[in-house]
Amino acid sequence: MDPKYDLACDRCGGMMTLSEDRKEMHCEYCGNIVVLPDKEQEEKVAYAKRKAELDAQHEHYEKRKRMENKHLTVSKIIALLFVAGIILIPASCIAGPYVFRPTINPFEYIDVNFEGVDGEGKATVELIKSDSKIQNLDDLNLKLSQTYYLSENDVISISTNDLSSPCRHSVKYKEYTVTGLERFLTDLDDIDENAEKLINQKSEQLIGMAIKDKPQFTNLKHEKFYLLSDGEKENLMYDVYSATWELVEGNSKTVYLVAYYENIIVHCGNNATFSYDNCMYTGNILSEGSYQNGAVTAFESLRDIELDLNTNHSPDMILTEK
Q1: Spatial distance between the Cα atoms of 279 and 220, rounded to a whole number of angstroms
Q2: Residue 18 belongs to some domain of the structure
């Protein structure tokens, strides 16, 4: 036991004595016991208290830092929106309704037509539908690679420019093959029975007008077609008929009457049509001397017709018959 400490009892004022384990003080007079504080425990308590203070300070710092970062982020967003507004608002003023545009395929709005004669054909574009987005062809800004002097099976292209169009274009280029142009007849095998009948009707009308005052011509009968062609843009067709020429003396002979077509174009099928640059009745002047019937315009033989075709027209043209 250590000696007495100079520590008065808080009850009686007597002298207190330290215990052997140095953890308590005992009063010898009134028996009061005072538990002495544990130094290690005091240190732990002090550490815990300090740590709590530091943790509280750190949490306060982090909270303040988070708030500052949040304010900074909001400020940045506001600044970006402000800058974007400065850029977009003038752009929208310039572009007007073209800033936010729907997307279309412009080629769904048009049809391309080809017309005219092969080698001199023309391409035209037609607006086949319109809506709230597209009102007319100008809205599509189309450009044709070639419009005139087209030939059958040529390929042309159409491009679009949507910079000033009310719509964006998902497709901006398309090719078209030229078809359906009228072609000068180059081969007699290209005409069918319907077209032949139509040509014969016109020929019989011409020949009929030529011999209407000549009753001596009888037994009019279609014989054949002759065609001279350069293979491209020029041709000459003879539609040949045979007829019996009744002579004054009671004799008769066969002659050939011809309807002449220059640069003929034929469309076959049920709705056959044909066109030409020139059409006339042709032949040589024939007479039999003392015949009272006088002179006639005709050919005496098919050979004479072939000679006429080859003699009076370009040698570069090819002669075919049907």
Answers
A1: 19
A2: no
Residue 143 lies in a domain: yes
Q: How many domains is the chain built from? A: 3
Burial letters 156-187, b for 16+ CB under 10 A, else e:
bebebebeebbbebeeeeeebebeebbbbbbe
Domain end call among 81, 98, 115 = 98
pTM of the shown model: 0.55
Q: What is the pLDDT along the chain (322 residues), one digit of tens a residue?
A: 344 455 778 888 788 887 777 778 888 888 888 877 766 556 655 665 676 677 777 777 777 777 777 777 777 788 787 776 666 555 545 544 555 789 999 999 999 999 888 888 899 999 998 888 888 888 889 999 999 989 889 999 999 988 888 889 999 999 999 988 888 888 999 889 999 999 999 999 999 888 887 777 889 999 999 999 988 888 999 999 999 888 777 778 899 999 999 999 988 888 888 888 889 888 888 776 544 456 778 899 999 999 888 887 777 888 999 9
- Is residue 214 domain-resident? yes
Separation CA 107–CA 141 (nearest Å)? 11
